[in-house]
């Protein structure tokens, strides 16, 4: 292995080291409570080293967002592309996919939902902000396409699929944040799964043509 290849590998390893530490700190302290000092202490690095890879805390957190968004896109597109399922069954699969993404890292999912505001995105480099915007459009488009097929074949009401997607995502995001609140009051209980299942069942029935 040449010197340049070794340097590049070391950079990737150091970047991953910082991201792994940040993930733990954000999960335990939340986005607002976490500091660069907390993260560098967890990673056993100096703040100066962190700033070689990320310009600020928001950019570091946004980089973690991308990994979660990639997983979300893959899950939703997998549901969309299952040609053997009718639109109603796809909605049930969508509910399971959303819940599975939540289960991968509940605390950081909560942080991600609270992060995606115009103010936070302004703190990112144009390239990173653009990536997050593109990924967000991609998963929303995939959700809309699930409903589009149902509108096209007459299963669902003739309304814009993007509106259905907005409703589903709004319900999911709201229930995740509500779950986070409830966990603080009732330790160990999982309200999200049954409530999300019921919510999407209600949506599915409500938009179905009689």
CATH class category of the largest domain = Mainly Alpha
State the CATH superfamily name of the largest domain.
Tetracycline Repressor, domain 2
In total, how many beta strands? 0
> SS-based structural class?
mainly alpha
Discrete helix count: 10
The number of domains is: 2
Sheet-strand content, in percent, reads under 5%
Largest sheet: none
Could you tell me the CATH topology label of the largest domain. Tetracycline Repressor, domain 2
Which regions contain 5 or more consecutive residues with pLDDT less than 50? none
Q: Tell me roughly what share of residues is in helical segments.
A: over 70%
Radius of gyration: 20 Å
Protein model, in words:
This protein is mainly α and 210 residues long. It has two domains: 1-54, Arc Repressor Mutant, subunit A (Orthogonal Bundle), CATH 1.10.10; 57-206, Orthogonal Bundle (Tetracycline Repressor, domain 2), CATH 1.10.357. It is built from ten helices and no strands. The chain has helices spanning 3-33, 36-43, 47-53, 57-80, 87-104, 106-115, 118-121, 126-152, 161-185, 192-206. Helix 5 (87-104) runs antiparallel to helix 8 (126-152) and helix 5 runs antiparallel to helix 10 (192-206). The protein is elongated, with a radius of gyration of 20 Å. The termini are far apart. The model has no long low-confidence stretch (mean pLDDT 88).
Provide keyphrases for this structure.
single chain; 210 residues; mainly alpha; Arc Repressor Mutant, subunit A; Tetracycline Repressor, domain 2; 2 domains; 80% helix; 0% strand; elongated
């Amino acid at each position: 292995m040449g010197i340049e290849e070794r340097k590049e590998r070391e950079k990737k390893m150091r970047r991953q080291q910082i991201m792994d530490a940040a993930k733990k700190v954000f999960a335990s302290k939340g986005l607002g409570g976490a500091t660069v000092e907390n993260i560098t202490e967890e990673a056993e690095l100096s703040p100066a080293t962190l700033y070689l890879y990320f310009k600020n805390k928001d950019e570091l957190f946004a980089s973690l967002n991308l990994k979660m968004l990639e997983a979300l896109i893959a899950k939703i597109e997998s549901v969309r592309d299952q040609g053997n399922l009718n639109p109603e069954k796809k909605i049930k699969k969508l509910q399971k996919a959303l819940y599975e993404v939540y289960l991968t890292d509940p605390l950081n999912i909560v942080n991600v939902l609270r992060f995606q505001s115009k103010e936070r995105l302004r703190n990112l480099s144009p390239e990173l902000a653009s990536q997050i915007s593109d990924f967000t459009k991609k998963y929303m488009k995939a959700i809309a396409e699930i409903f589009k097929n149902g509108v096209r074949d007459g299963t669902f009401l003739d309304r814009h699929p993007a509106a259905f997607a907005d409703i589903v995502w709004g319900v999911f995001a709201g229930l995740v944040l509500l779950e986070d609140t409830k966990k603080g009051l009732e330790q160990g209980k999982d309200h999200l799964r049954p409530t999300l299942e019921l919510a999407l069942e209600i949506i599915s029935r409500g938009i179905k043509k009689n």
